[in-house]
Design goal:
Layout (H helix, E strand, L loop, with lengths): L15 H21 L4 H11 L8 H19 L9 E2 L6 E2 L5 H11 L1
Antiparallel strand pairs: 1-2
Helix pairs in contact: 1-3, 1-4
Amino acid sequence: WSTDAYGQDGKGNPWVLTTAALASLLYQAATARVWQGPLSAPQLAAWRAALGNEAFEGSVSSFIAAGDAVMIRLRDHVQIDGLHLYEQIDRTTGLQYNAKDLSWSYTEVLLAMR
């Protein structure tokens, strides 16, 4: 598929389901902080590198804020389509395309919201 994740330039597009899965991971990390306490220095460094944010604090509230930011950004892209969830979001136009109403996308969004 020339417009799929391994298209002509090889850069691909964000997928709704993986975007929601990222938010879910961030919310799970917030829960882990409640039960396991603060991150160690190496753990914090790894999260900062993964998120590309050297100012990330690694606190419960910062993980929740990061998850919320991902979900808000996702909402901004899907609300134009009446909150229908497609497979991908075009990285250039920001519009959704490919498989409309992909059940896996809905599943990941609902899992992130629980």
